[in-house]
Design brief:
Mean pLDDT: 95
Number of strands: 2
Radius of gyration: 20 Å
Distance between the termini: 34 Å
Strand content: under 5%
Strand order of the largest sheet: 1-2
């Protein structure tokens, strides 16, 4: 029995990422607002803040926690994807998320977002036989649901 399915894990991880002390500022106005929110002067910001993951801005003192959280998420997802039921669910979810049937690079997008080392012209080469079976099952479910629900 799975602890959580892919969608549940995806939502949990997203909530944990959203709770991380990371900020973004894409204009001078947003930068000033961020400094005000953090109670920092420009000089203090130069000493205390860094920019990293996805151009996020965070305190140097939070960097290890942020790094550890992303590393834990990666390890959790990697371990869960060893379970073919979980992997099939992940394939299906991302097929729906990436509009697989009408996306000209649907295979690539689905596999890439799940962390597979995918080649653009030979997408399925990165999968084992068991993973290909999970892919086929997810794809069959996707097309069945698409037909029943009138997705296209």
């Amino acid at each position: 029995m799975l602890k959580e399915n892919y969608e549940q894990m995806h939502r949990r991880i997203q909530a944990e990422v959203n709770a991380l002390p990371m900020y973004w500022a894409f204009s001078d106005e947003q930068w000033e607002k961020l400094l005000n929110e953090l109670g920092l002067t420009e000089e203090e910001a130069k000493e205390q803040l860094v920019s990293g993951i996805g151009n996020a801005i965070y305190r140097k003192s939070d960097a290890q926690h942020i790094h550890d959280t992303f590393s834990r998420h990666e390890a959790e997802l990697s371990a869960a994807m060893e379970n073919m039921e979980f992997l099939e669910d992940a394939f299906y979810y991302e097929m729906c998320n990436h509009e697989y049937a009408i996306n000209m690079q649907g295979k690539f997008d689905v596999l890439d977002c799940l962390g597979f080392d995918v080649e653009y012209e030979n997408e399925m080469a990165c999968l084992t036989d068991d993973q290909r079976k999970a892919w086929k099952n997810a794809r069959d479910r996707y097309y069945k649901d698409a037909d029943e629900k009138g997705w296209f």
